[in-house]
Structures are given as C-alpha cells and as structure tokens.
Design a protein that fits this description.
Length: 109
C-alpha cells in the first residue's frame, strides 16, 4: 500500500507577523499613545505625552522575543480572563450554560 503524500506549501515568516510601527505591533503602539494622551489630559500638560516613549521601548523589548506576544495577551483577555469556572475545570472552558450551582463543592464529600 502506497502512502499518500501531504501537500506542503512554503509559509514565509513575514506573512504571519502583525503590522508594526517603530518595531511594535499596532495594538501596543495604540495603547502606548492612549496612555500617554490620557496622562496628558489628566495632568493638563503636554509634557506627559513623553510617557509614550518608554512604553513603546518596553513594548519593543517584549516583541523582540515573540512578535505575537500582544496578540496572545489580548486573546487571553478575550477568552481566559472572562472564564468564571476556571477553578472547576482547571483552565478556560467556555460554556453555553449559565454558571450557577445549587451546591458548594465542600458539601459533596
């Protein structure tokens, strides 16, 4: 019996990288500019906008190791951070059912 070969296509790393500005993904750059702008508005001084530069540098160091670090972090906030039954299942487990129990786990024993 002859084994069937799987189709293989080349995938270039540039196709999987997020859009970047100053070597930082757009999501992280927008958050840095937002925090600097918010500090400028609250502090009532344009000099607080300089806070954006260190935030972009920190983001650049995070992205140096993994280009998708901020995407992974945002996906965690979309899925895992909302999971209320993490202690029961030991991880993120989306459930279509309402999470309400009529008993406590301590009462089972």
């Amino acid at each position: 019996m002859e084994e069937e070969k799987l189709n293989q296509d080349k995938l270039y790393l540039a196709l999987t990288r997020p859009a970047m500005i100053f070597g930082v993904p757009l999501e992280a750059a927008f958050i840095s500019v937002f925090v600097g702008g918010l500090a400028m508005i609250i502090g009532d001084s344009i000099f607080y906008l300089v806070l954006t530069v260190p935030l972009i540098v920190i983001s650049h160091f995070i992205v140096k190791r993994d280009q998708n670090a901020f995407r992974i972090l945002f996906r965690f906030f979309d899925t895992g951070a909302k999971c209320r039954n993490r202690s029961h299942w030991g991880g993120s487990s989306p459930s279509p059912l309402r999470l309400q129990r009529a008993y406590k786990i301590e009462e089972i024993d």
